[in-house]
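As described in the Methods, two query proteins were run sequentially through the folding procedure within a single session, without resetting any intermediate state between them. The first query and its resulting structure tokens are shown here.
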Amino acid sequence: MRKEDKSTVIEQIAATVKQYAHFYLVDTTAMDATATSALRRECFKAGIKLMVVKNSLLHKALEGLEEDYSPLYGCMKGTTAVMFCDVANAPAKLIKDKAKDGIPALKAAYAEESFYIGADQLDTLVSIKSKHEVIAEIVALLQSPAKNVISALQSGGNTLHGVLKTLGERSEA
């Protein structure tokens, strides 16, 4: 590959890293063309961009960015595919669903501004909640006390109504 081509590829990788909030480094060494094609289709359906890269070019692209990605450099060995996404746990769920005998295997991930190194981090990554899930939980927590007060007032009102009705019936008799 010519030097001009390499610099173009490095710029493309760097632009893609900047575009997406999260990315995963995945080992696809033992995957044949059919399996890789199926993985690409699944990634597309899940809103994940899959890119197979040369480790040296990825390394140079990450070095050229403002963020310090040095914890990931040790994982760049063998065949590396990069999964870019906007939802932190989407690639982890896909890898967990599709991985047979550890293929594709997680090498490392950069998600929610943190580094996750090693395949043993997959379950941790799957459990990361998306921004929308966290907001939904906060709204539910904020609504809970208000709902409790309203239901207490309603049940108290029904009890008070029952007592008054009973007292009203007694005085008539």
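Immediately afterward, the second query was submitted; its sequence and tokens are:
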Amino acid sequence: MTNPGVVTMKGSSLTLIGNMPKTGDAAPDAEMLNNDLMPVKLSSFRGKICILASVPSLDTPVCDIETRRFNTEAAGLGSDVVILTISMDLPFAQKRWCGAAGIHNVITLSDHRAAEFGKAYGTLIQELRLLARSVMVIDRNGIVRYVELVKEITEEPNYGAALAIVKSLSAS
């Protein structure tokens, strides 16, 4: 399924492929690569609260800011919360970027090989083969509890809204 005009980049309309899950849906599984080229399935994080942050590329200013912000926030969220930043960047580039940026609290995953995440979560940009900026919160049981698709992908997400959901889930 294609969704034209759902997001823009600098005002230009883009088309997303797939269907974004809604709050209350079971989180789709997807396999990506970690920085060591090992496959990682989203389902391997069940039992933890997950923030899924999809970004176009870590080597762009807004993605850099967002990932650094989530890295800082992660330090105060506890061991039952994991933050995954997912992009189409190659694992080598993700590893290099994390090292240069001092990112230790966020796990970066690459969807470059098969775009499984992008298709399953409705964030794959047809025109660019990059991921749209989105933030989702998945509870310990694999249920989607928060969804934000950032309309203009050059803008930052609503960190406070996602973090409030995470904190409420951590307290329960």
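Residues 2-171 form a domain with the Glutaredoxin fold (CATH 3.40.30.10). We note this only descriptively and draw no conclusion about the first query from it.
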